[in-house]
Amino acid sequence: MGNHHSSSLDAHHHHSRSTAKLLGCTSADAFEIHLDVPHDHDHESTTAASDHDEKRSFDPPPLYAYSASAFPEYQLTWILDALRRSDFSRLDRSGETYVDYMGGSLYPESLIRSKLSSACANEAREAVLSFFRAPPGYTVVFTANATGALKLVGESFPFSEPVATCLAILHRNRPKNRHASPSLFALTGQSNISNSKNSLSLIKYAASQGFHTVLDAAAVAPTSVFSLSETPVDAMAISFYKMFDFLAKLERPWFAGGTVDVVQAPGNIVTMTSEMHERFEDGTINYLNLPAITDGLRFLSAYLPFLPLRLSCLMHHLLGSLTALQHDTTGTPIVRILSRTPLRRLRAVGEQSDTGSVVSLIFLFPSGEMVPNTFIEYAAARSSISLRTGCMCNPGGAASILGLRDAMAALPSDVTLAAFEKHMGHELGVVRISLGLASDFRDVYRVVRFAETIGCKGARDALWEQWLGSKAGEAM
Q: Which residue has the higher pLDDT, 86 or 107?
């Protein structure tokens, strides 16, 4: 149940425009939406035509009239249209549809510059604290990734005995009094595969029961407003690979270069450095890249308040369109949505969604059997669509939404993925579509048209033969 990313930036990129003409079994008129999609003859364009393409990316976005009528609140997020034209116009110039924001966000073009400063590390730390409205007492530690941040907390927490931190047994295992053994409660803010958001009230409740708290905000922070002043936690891992933590309470069982003040050699005396963040950053951090954090957070602060409303519009349109699609031969559904869907539609800037902006699904043959994810990945890349397939580094979440819990319980200790998939009779994993900062109705439209292609027998059969041919070539 590994992870795979479809991207048009591969050996098949030069085919993407010809396959785009095959999208859908019906004409664009049937959708009452018109989208300008490049065709093969664009390769014969002159320099003037190229200049026209450049200008076209700054024209009013296609589908805007549709979005204004069906989702009038979408117009309140016009600032994100300006952002798309100024900082992400490369998507429209290249015809790329990027829907893998949960895997990694795209860089804004305005941030690609160099800035060297002896104070850049401190500026980056201050920017992180300011972005999350952290009250005094918080410290920022830079780690390789969010996993490393959580690992640091788990390994450094002063457990004196095994302590369960499962949600289901929170009440039963709560500390009896302030003198009880330290207990840690960990919560995932949002699932990267099921699209569920956990209530942050659980953090407050756990703290009231004497637990120390850690929040994995890697999935929720990029698209939701979060304040440490309103919801204080002892530690938080965030998606751009930094961590806030209760360092004074942690007792790291080892030290490395730069984390100590004095080391007795030979001997056993070790005095840790007085700077809290330096105690947990091994060696020299990559300070040359830290200005990107400072500038990036300032950049995101201007747009993040508008993002939940826009994503709400896009998610409702995407989910409604996908669930309505049917195979042209049988009238059966083309996709099955597995992730949680939003219960309410946002109407104003400042409102927060009850879910994320992730759609996990599987594609179905007319018979109802699952279409291999590797085929979907191939077909998406041929249509210049970047999405993700697999278990999303979340095998527990994938097993849950795919209904594999009983099968997982029966696995032998020496199981392999190939053997597991053979036993199940199909590939394991999901197709994940995730929206983000630069997403607009064009991206959703292209994803829906791609899905319709899978439901069109002629187009699907043609892509299937090409896919089989590519697999045979790899085998040779």
A: 86
